[in-house]
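Standup notes
- HV: blocked on the assembly model, inputs below
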Amino acid sequence: MNALPVDLALAWDSLPALLRGLQVTVLITALPLVFGLALAFPLCFARMSPRRWLALPAELFVVFFRGAPVLILLYLVYYGFGQIKALREGPLWVLFGSAFGCAILAFSLNHAAYMVEVLRGSLNAVPHGIVEASEALGISRRNVFIWVKMPLAIRYGLKAYQNEVVSFTKGTAIVSVVTITDLTAVANSIFEQTYDPFTPILCAAALYWAFVNVLRIGFDLWGRWLDRHNAVPPQEQAQQRAAVAASAGEIPVPAPRRRSGFRRPVL
Amino acid sequence: MTAVPDPGIAVSVTGLVKRYGDHAALCGVDLEVRRGEKIVICGPSGSGKSTFIRCLNALERHDAGRIVVNGIELTGDEGTVQDVRQEVGMVFQHFNLFPHLTALENCMLAPRLNRGLGKAQAQALAMKHLERVHLADHAGKYPSRLSGGQQQRVAIARALCMEPRILLFDEPTSALDPEMVKEVLAVMEELAASGVTMLCVTHEMGFARRVADRCVFMDRGAIVESGEAARFFDAPASERLRGFLAQILH
């Protein structure tokens, strides 16, 4: 028996298949992210509308699709809609007839429901005074939204959005239940062929990890670019450091109180 | 039946009422401001002075009475609201700069969106007004890198970039550290000299004495007393104004 739980030769051999699985995972993540976000905007506007007849359906949408487990949603769309004869014979069967189409649909609805709330929270976080100042300048409501509210809301909501994207990405692993061979499904089938309980699953985990980290790096760069208005310019940083260094020389700093007999070693 | 507006009148308010639920924040305010006049409005907190000037550019919608700004009557209609806001600049207590834009971009946004100026034109206009508030050197900085006084001066420049005929100030120095009040007041005094109509809610009584053509004292949603600055401070007629002045002048 190998000392490592991972069979490196098997890992190497299954890499092409796993990468094909990763491709499917990326696709099945990216498309719902796009469609879900596109759907979330109008729903969010409806949700925030003072008109009850607009706000209520949007709220119900969120309550339903955020509350329903994605797995059950997926079953419902894939197996449930196939029972409807009119749908089977209609033009929408192109979508509902394919596992891929069903998965994209179910994921998009789920992601949209979460994003409605992320968006709403971020838009509500924009300080009222800043919106008022824009209005006082005679900027139209549409332009206030595009140039002031949305750019700020993106900044406030970025971390919540990143959380949602990352957990959503990993959540796509359940698509294997509707016959799609994503990364998890590939790993599972390798396990079934080899009975190696560790290698394929650990390799898949490593690939998920890599994917999520690519996303993280992307978000970090985006966040840093968005936050440039709070960045301290380098020369100012140097000044601050110099000021701290200078003041440290002048003011005697008392030693921290110790509860144990620890003495700070003299350097 | 709309009479031809008197071009010498910048703002005309009659019987202005604003309610928040059962509470009447303004109960029948009348004020006429001539073009070029500088008005200082003061009064205890909760007296309705902020609500009053916020009604003038429809940040608060009034419930009754008539507001005519630069010959445009403010009705519920969005078109008149936009028209009035093009004519009226406002400076807030908390600056309310756009944090994601530089000082220059803060000043460029409204002219570009409302007046359709190109980038170069808007930039030139913004620089002109940033120079006017002595901040040309800081044009490229974001608000978070500016002091409170500098931020408020950017806010003034931002309002000026729409080249308004009327300027409203809502306690422009109340959120500033004492040493920064001066630079903002100095800019406001320079503006006053330029002939623009100004309505200013402030407790800076020195500024009021130097600049105001007329001081208005509000209490409990109504104008209690108004008059030219010297008489207002030295010989207040009403008991309430006397009490108020005694409070703030120590």
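- HV (later): unblocked. The CA atoms of residues 40 and 115 of chain A lie 6 Å apart. The radius of gyration of chain A is 26 Å.
- Next: hand off to the docking folks.
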